[in-house]
Known about the structure:
Its cofactor is pyridoxal 5'-phosphate. With 459 residues, this protein is α/β, with parallel strands linked by helices.
Amino acid sequence: xxxxxxxxxxxxxxxxxxxxxxxxxxxxxxxxxxxxxxxxxxxxxxxxxxxxxxxxxxxxxxxxxxxxxxxxxxxxxxxxxxxxxxxxxxxxxxxxxxxxxxxxxxxxxxxxxxxxxxxxxxxxxxxxxxxxxxxxxxxxxxxxxxxxxxxxxxxxxxxxxxxxxxxxxxxxxxxxxxxxxxxxxxxxxxxxxxxxxxxxxxxxxxxxxxxxxxxxxxxxxxxxxxxxxxxxxxxxxxxxxxxxxxxxxxxxxxxxxxxxxxxxxxxxxxxxxxxxxxxxxxxxxxxxxxxxxxxxxxxxxxxxxxxxxxxxxxxxxxxxxxxxxxxxxxxxxxxxxxxxxxxxxxxxxxxxxxxxxxxxxxxxxxxxxxxxxxxxxxxxxxxxxxxxxxxxxxxxxxxxxxxxxxxxxxxxxxxxxxxxxxxxxxxxxxxxxxxxxxxxxxxxxxxxxxxxxxxxxxx
Length: 459
Ligand code: PMP
């Protein structure tokens, strides 16, 4: 069977999937037994599966479909670009109009000191690029000892060897002897999970101090950079306490250490600003981007390079021996450019900030009243709720992840994609979600929390 245009039913699709498809981040044996959910089409904020069910996509795919599904303009641009120039590379002194135009556009929409972009095919490739750029920068500065990158436990920076090493996910480190040398992890600013009796503000300062302690332990002359997501996404939408980023900024300035703000999720409007760095007033030296850059319509990523680093790499660097076949792929670049045009022309980021995010956050925080919910938090178009065993005492379930998975499965069955990270339920809907759709998301979430609560009580 090799013609997917034949009308296959769900069971047939699942059987074929089971036979040949090795899925990412999945227990493939268990998935094979259960059968994958097959998504066949999508429009706006809704997915449709192979049984014809309509599902509100509270995760915008994997945090990426910022402009929503079904925008024909992107398909048209891709079609035209494929006919004009489907592929050429940007190695060896060549370029092409889509990459040139997208680079110019990115410099326009990102913070002022970021005036160059290195194109990649994904967020992971962007972080591999970052590792090499940072070390190259310090080599060129005559400080080859400055190699170590400090990251955070439970961070997510991708799934390649460097990406997973920069990330702080223990289950990922367990596969393949990661992290690679020269990458260390400090405490994350996760008040609900790790703050104990401290106020969020006190805890934010403590988590920032962990950075200074690590710098002092390793020695400033050994530390190249600090990498962090402005808001940790895949780790469970960890919104740092208000004291965290100001203190981190001060520490990085005190010691001569670069800041890498991983904007793969926060970028392109997710926080209600164009970039999370603007939301938190950060001035990153390097800024990996992907996902919302093309709203996921085609794979493309990049690293925005700040003037401090770019000046050195350009002036003194000679050859930079790094790059990907698909760096600045013309069709992906044209689609990304069209995506940014839509974000700009339709004032999508401004609408998020002024209208839809305040409404989503107001409604989302009402979930804190539910007996199963210990905390509801969020910024812009991301949110998290913590499922707890005892609300008053902020005690979590012993078997972390069981209740979250239960809740996630209820959501799917009831027409909502909400992701579970352990017992933390998270959302990151398309930025174009409207008030009525937000109401629907909240109503479905409440219903699924009720169902989960009932199931947990029954044991
Ligand atoms: N960085 C962050 C912050 C991410 O959330 C992700 C993906 N979830 C990545 C990097 C990796 O991106 P990709 O999956 O495109 O390689």
